[in-house]
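Project channel, design review

CF: Before we commit to the Maylandia zebra constructs, I'd like one complete example in the thread so the newer folks can see what an input/output pair looks like. Taking Cytochrome c oxidase subunit.
RD: sounds good, go ahead.
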Amino acid sequence: MCTNLFRSIRQPERKMAAFGRFSQVLLRSSLTQTRRQLSAAAGHGEQSGKTWKILTFVVALPGVGVCMLNTFLKEQHHSHEQPEFVPYTHLRIRSKRFPWGDGNKSLFHNPHVNPLPDGYEGHE
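CF: and here is what came back for Cytochrome c oxidase subunit:
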């Protein structure tokens, strides 16, 4: 009776051990296969370098050129007028002066785009 009890306890342990060995074999084989695929995709020596050089000149540089042209053409049609200043009470609140300059302008202040609390500079 006692030996049957130990056999029934050990049987799940054997199954789990067999499952563990089986999963390790599968994992090793899948990792090896993945390494082989990645190393094959990397190419060999000069051929890989030629491929990337061709991709750089045929895809990347023309792509950058098209983006630059798009930005230039959109900037040509953009109006460069300042929008009308509306003194909203919840915007441009200065509870403390900035520690640089006259204390009223932010660190990256652009007088053409960023109004002061009382309006744009040079427009009175």
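RD: helpful, thanks. The mean pLDDT is 79.
CF: The chain is about 60% helix and 0% strand.
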